[in-house]
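lol forgot to send this yesterday, sorry. struct tokens for the thing we talked abt
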């Protein structure tokens, strides 16, 4: 369910709401944020090994990232991110699914804060540039590309699965 305030539209959305300490304005910021801002808000924590190398705690989640679920019914499950739903702030993971009453397999929606990124999808040059901007060191990013990047075949597989959801 997507929550909306009655009189707020994306045209009236104000970035200054984020600076407020009031919980109601923080909720208002999240609920009424446009999609391009929601994508940046949807960050997940990085694994300890990646954290030591990059010296950052979190990074925006994307289709093709290899993650571990930290909370809920599927705790401890690892898999590729199949779909990112920025409208509902939810992520769908390859191995987190259940059978409906009709027998159809349905992917379970998981909040991005309940995930830990184990391997990054670094097939996109723009994402690598974003990582370099955040880390400010090309050598550390090259080390991550060698050790903790998901393969092209896995990314294509995740994209194909995501199209069928």
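and heres what i got for the seq, position by position
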């Amino acid at each position: 369910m997507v929550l909306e305030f009655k009189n707020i539209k994306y045209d009236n959305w104000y970035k200054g709401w984020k600076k407020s300490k009031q919980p109601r304005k923080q909720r208002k910021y999240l609920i009424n944020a446009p999609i391009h801002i929601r994508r940046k808000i949807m960050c997940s924590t990085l694994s300890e090994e990646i954290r030591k190398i990059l010296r950052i705690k979190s990074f925006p989640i994307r289709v093709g990232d290899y993650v571990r679920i930290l909370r809920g019914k599927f705790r401890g499950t690892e898999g590729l991110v199949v779909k990112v739903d920025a409208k509902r702030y939810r992520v769908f993971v390859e191995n987190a699914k259940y059978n409906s009453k009709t027998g159809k397999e349905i992917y379970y929606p998981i909040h991005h804060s309940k995930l830990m990124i184990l391997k990054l999808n670094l097939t996109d040059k723009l994402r690598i540039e974003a990582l370099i901007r955040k880390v400010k060191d090309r050598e550390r990013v090259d080390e991550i590309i060698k050790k903790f990047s998901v393969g092209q075949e896995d990314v294509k597989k995740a994209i194909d699965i995501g199209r069928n959801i």
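The chain has a mean pLDDT of 90. anyway ping me if u want another try
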